[in-house]
Design brief:
This protein is α/β, with parallel strands linked by helices. The chain has two domains: 3-223, Rossmann fold, CATH 3.40.50; 229-293, Alpha-Beta Plaits (2-Layer Sandwich), CATH 3.30.70. The protein has twelve helices and 14 strands. It has helices at residues 43-50, 72-76, 94-104, 109-122, 138-148, 168-183, 195-201, 219-226, 241-248, 270-282, 297-305, 309-316; strands at 3-14, 17-28, 32-36, 58-63, 66-67, 79-82, 156-160, 187-192, 204-209, 212-217, 230-235, 255-256, 262-265, 287-293. The strands form three sheets. Strands 6-7-8-3-9-10 form a six-stranded mixed beta sheet, with helices on both faces. The protein has a four-stranded antiparallel beta sheet with strand order 2-1-4-5. Strands 12-13-11-14 form a four-stranded antiparallel beta sheet, sandwiched between helices. A hairpin with a 2-residue loop joins β9 (204-209) and β10. α3 packs across α4 and α8 packs across α11 (297-305).
Length: 317
């Protein structure tokens, strides 16, 4: 399948900080690539380059064969973008926001009206269409922002952490809308720091950390890199974390989780559970949980980066 988005060796530096350090990735036509990583990893910088908002220091990027640097005006006409924060005018109504976007794209008046009606209905905003956006909830603003990014019927859509700050119910509703767009054939590059979001929405996932793509594949392929299963250990006393880590290091390569638990790739399956229990008992460490389970994307992130996504988010805040 032909690539709709192609990125090769992108580099972007701010002073001594290397925001992008040779990022290379592809998004197939009609596919969904989830760019997964904590704040400060380089996700937004990548999107800004691909949407002509930022020039890289080196490397190349194209969308549907259009060079991002050589023909930005042509590219802007065929893509849609929704950033981390809803880019809507709070003093306008929902409908007025969509009409304004249509005018900026120089669409015919009849098409603007028709498109606004379609999108307001699709995003369940018809009842609020005549209300000033200042009175919208966070979830409504995000839906309106996504609707605005679709006014020009983009062939490729870039969503930069579209559900950040939403409550679980609003996040779920927005996921359903995004899934509908994908079923309609939209090519999507989605950045997120939510592991569950990447697992649900993306065909393929690229894990980015400190400006580098450190792994890429389907969700199952990435989980297989950790191993068929993992052993999770949670000390009964959080003060025993360091001692438990040292004890488990004698039988595997433990990684610390955000909630104080420890995870080890279970290359030897159930045998590792027995060995872990033995060394913890010998060290006199009481445990509240010792389990063998299938890896999650959080385990992948732990294994690849040495920290949990939640920890990474706090460190980069």
């Amino acid at each position: 399948m032909a690539a709709a988005v192609e990125v090769e060796d992108l580099v972007k530096t701010y002073g001594t900080t290397r925001a992008l350090d040779g990022v290379t990735l592809q998004v197939p036509q009609g596919g969904v690539l989830g760019l997964l990583g904590p704040n400060g990893a380089g996700k937004t910088t990548t999107v800004r380059v691909l949407t002509t908002l930022l020039r890289p220091d080196s490397g190349r990027a194209s969308v549907l064969g259009i060079d991002v640097l050589k023909d930005p005006d042509k590219l802007r006409r065929i893509i849609g973008v929704a950033g981390q924060y809803a880019a809507v005018d709070e003093l306008l109504t929902g409908r007025e926001n969509l009409v304004l976007v249509g005018k900026l794209y120089h669409l015919p008046k009849a098409e603007i009206t028709r498109r606004a009606d379609e999108l307001l209905e699709r995003f369940e905003l018809t009842a609020a269409a005549s209300r000033v956006v200042k009175g919208y909830s966070g979830g409504m603003r995000r839906r309106l922002d996504l609707a605005a990014s679709l006014v020009n019927r983009p062939q490729v859509l870039f969503l930069d952490e579209p559900t950040t700050g939403l409550d679980p119910r609003s996040r779920l509703r927005l996921w359903e809308v995004i899934e509908d767009l994908v079923r309609d054939g939209t090519t999507l590059l989605l950045t997120t720091q939510y592991l569950e979001e990447a697992d649900r929405l993306a065909d393929r996932i690229a894990v980015i950390d400190t400006g580098k793509v450190i792994a890429e594949g389907t969700s199952d392929e990435l989980k297989d890199r950790v191993g068929g299963s993992v052993v999770v250990v949670r000390p009964a006393n959080s003060a025993d974390g360091d001692r438990a880590f040292a004890a488990l290091s004698t039988v595997g390569e433990p990684v610390r989780g955000a909630s104080g638990d420890l995870t080890l790739p279970a290359t030897t399956g159930v045998t590792l559970v027995t060995e872990a229990a033995r060394v913890l008992e010998e060290a006199g460490i009481a445990i509240s949980e010792l389990a063998l389970r299938r890896p999650t994307l959080d385990d992948v992130f732990l294994t690849l980066t040495g920290h949990a996504a939640e920890q990474a988010e706090e460190q980069s805040a």
